[in-house]
């Protein structure tokens, strides 16, 4: 990924200055702390100027409806404080002039706005696109005092340039070791172009080095003497306002479209990656918690259990009840079943019959507790496998709607099905000896395979006891598949699972009619019977 440099910003300025100058700000929105949307009206057109000062992908561009959605922008119900400040000062303000200081990545919107006395107040919205120092700053041009900024910079962060309300606005300090490339006439050092000259970025230096441009050519590009032909090289994940510098250029209609298309895709990937990371952490914690619970319950179940002993004691007492006395401390009897004399400790406050009934009660409680532990143990194993299936499916989906739906379910406890209602779902399809085979990598694909594609006679395959893809072998006209076809489907189930690198695992298969989805269970969760297991 590359970032906006002076050459690109200058090209954006040249392309859009006619529209921007004398345009009015109709609406101000702030989706997050690091981005801003200004709806502008000018030249009988309405456009949305998008400003992003995130250190990862700082840029400006005009949005369209498609890229608005691609960026996953959400306008908050309660506007942030900086948004409210801008609305107070800039609502219906007119852009009087656009400026870019020489070789700076600062896009200045000089504005005319009215105060309470209908007096014109000149202000400037400085959009600074400078990596981790990127910011949006509003200041009064008369007093040169800052009114507000997207994020403040105190003395603890910068000793020479504070950014907060009431502090004078000044440009960032320039690197003293750099010089103006237009006044340079020496040799070209491609490795140090960005370090030696103003306005030359590292990404532009790399493009110059690849094309082995001479000094005069580089000067022409920096000065903007060449005709702009914005393009994106998707293979190398770079863009340039000069398509001839790219290896695989895809031409764009404008500089703004180039920036908009490139960064909207970057933001979409970042948003998807961030959601996936949060979901993965959440699922991993749940799985870890269940693993600990399963381990503890298994250890408890493996302990020596006195459940049967309690019943045996009760039986022995009742069998010999008339040979002994009540309220004794011990009950000594010969245990013919185990061929030994047994000494049973009794409750001296109870009769023999009451002691026997007490042992039966202990037996019942102990047996119920063990049965309950077994039930919890099995449920935990099923829940763990379900979360592992979700985790496996998460790694095999790039559709943002499904990831958002899973996020809402895990973090908000809701399921917004309208997000995925109109999303096209497809499963991978392969052919094995003429038979169609479908592979479902996630819950949505698995549900699609079982509910839309599968018939009763089709065969369903899945790795045993581990998360993996659902494999469906279509059986046309009741043709019986060969052992070779079935084994290859089993191999597919192993390859498309978390155990793909294991030496030997079990794969089960059965007809679709023997699958059942219990009521109120999760999507694509099924139980099965009449299965056959094959070791792969």
Features:
ibrinogen binding protein from staphylococcus aureus fold, 22 strands, five-stranded antiparallel beta sheet, 36% helix, six-stranded antiparallel beta sheet, 536 residues, 12 helices, single chain, alpha+beta, elongated, 4 domains
Strand content: 15-25%
CATH topology tier name of the largest domain: ibrinogen binding protein from staphylococcus aureus fold
The strand count comes to: 22
Distance between the termini: 42 Å
Question: Could you give me the name of the CATH homologous superfamily of the largest domain?
Answer: ibrinogen binding protein from staphylococcus aureus domain
CATH class of the largest domain: Mainly Beta
Main β-sheet, spatial strand arrangement? 15-16-18-17-19-22
Task: Quickly count the domains.
Answer: 4
Classify the helix fraction into a percent range.
Answer: 25-40%
CATH architecture of the largest domain: Roll
Count of alpha/pi helices: 12
Question: What is the residue-mean pLDDT, rounded to a whole number?
Answer: 89
Shape: elongated
Largest β-sheet summary: 6 strands, antiparallel
Q: What's the assembly state of these chains? A: single chain
Task: Supply the helix-strand structural class.
Answer: alpha+beta
- What's the Cα radius of gyration? 36 Å
List unreliable stretches of 5+ residues. Answer: none
């Amino acid at each position: 990924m590359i970032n906006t440099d002076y050459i690109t910003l200058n090209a954006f300025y040249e392309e859009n200055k006619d529209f921007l100058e004398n345009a009015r700000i109709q609406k101000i929105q702030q989706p997050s702390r690091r981005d801003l949307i200004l709806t502008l009206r000018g030249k009988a057109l309405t456009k949305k100027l998008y400003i992003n000062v995130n250190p990862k992908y700082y840029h400006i561009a005009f949005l369209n409806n498609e890229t608005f959605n691609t960026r996953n922008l959400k306008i908050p119900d309660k506007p942030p404080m900086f948004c409210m400040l801008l609305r107070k000062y800039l609502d219906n303000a007119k852009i009087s002039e656009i400026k870019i200081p020489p070789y700076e990545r600062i896009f200045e919107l000089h504005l005319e706005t009215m105060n309470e006395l209908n007096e014109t107040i000149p202000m400037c919205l400085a959009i600074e696109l400078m990596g981790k120092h990127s910011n949006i700053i509003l200041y009064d041009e008369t007093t040169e005092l800052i009114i507000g900024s997207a994020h403040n910079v105190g003395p603890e962060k910068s000793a020479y340039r504070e950014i907060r309300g009431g502090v004078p606005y000044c440009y960032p300090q320039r690197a003293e070791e750099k010089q103006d490339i237009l006044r340079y006439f020496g040799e070209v050092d491609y490795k140090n172009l960005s370090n030696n000259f103003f306005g030359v970025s590292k990404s532009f230096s790399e493009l110059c080095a690849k094309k082995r441009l001479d000094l005069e050519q580089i000067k022409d590009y920096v000065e903007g003497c060449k005709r702009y032909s914005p393009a994106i090289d998707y293979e190398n994940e770079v863009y340039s306002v000069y398509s001839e510098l790219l290896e695989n250029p895809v031409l764009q209609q404008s500089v703004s479209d180039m920036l908009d298309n490139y960064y909207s895709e970057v933001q979409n990937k970042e948003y998807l990656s961030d959601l996936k990371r949060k979901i993965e952490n959440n699922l991993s914690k749940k799985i870890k918690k269940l693993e600990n619970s399963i381990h503890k319950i298994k250890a408890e179940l493996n302990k020596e259990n006195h459940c049967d002993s309690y019943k045996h004691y009760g039986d022995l007492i009742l069998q010999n009840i008339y040979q002994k006395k009540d309220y004794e401390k011990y009950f000594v009897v010969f245990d013919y079943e185990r061929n030994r004399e047994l000494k049973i400790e009794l409750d001296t406050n109870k009769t023999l019959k009451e002691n026997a009934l007490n042992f039966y009660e202990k037996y019942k409680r102990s047996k119920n507790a063990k049965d309950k532990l077994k039930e919890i143990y099995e449920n935990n194993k099923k829940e763990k496998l379900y979360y592992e299936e979700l985790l496996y499916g998460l790694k095999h989906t790039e559709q943002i709607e499904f990831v958002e739906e899973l996020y809402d379910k895990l973090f908000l406890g809701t399921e917004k099905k309208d997000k995925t209602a109109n999303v096209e779902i497809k499963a991978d399809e392969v052919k094995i000896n003429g038979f169609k085979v479908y592979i479902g990598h996630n819950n949505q694909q698995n549900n699609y395979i079982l509910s839309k594609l599968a018939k009763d006679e089709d065969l369903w395959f899945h790795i045993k006891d581990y998360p993996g893809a659902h494999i469906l072998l279509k059986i046309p006209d009741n043709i019986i598949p060969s052992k070779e076809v079935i084994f290859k489907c089993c191999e597919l189930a192993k390859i498309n699972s978390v155990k793909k690198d294991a030496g030997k695992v079990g794969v089960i298969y059965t007809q679709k009619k023997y699958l059942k989805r219990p009521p109120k269970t999760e999507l694509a969760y099924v139980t099965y019977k009449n299965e056959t297991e094959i070791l792969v």
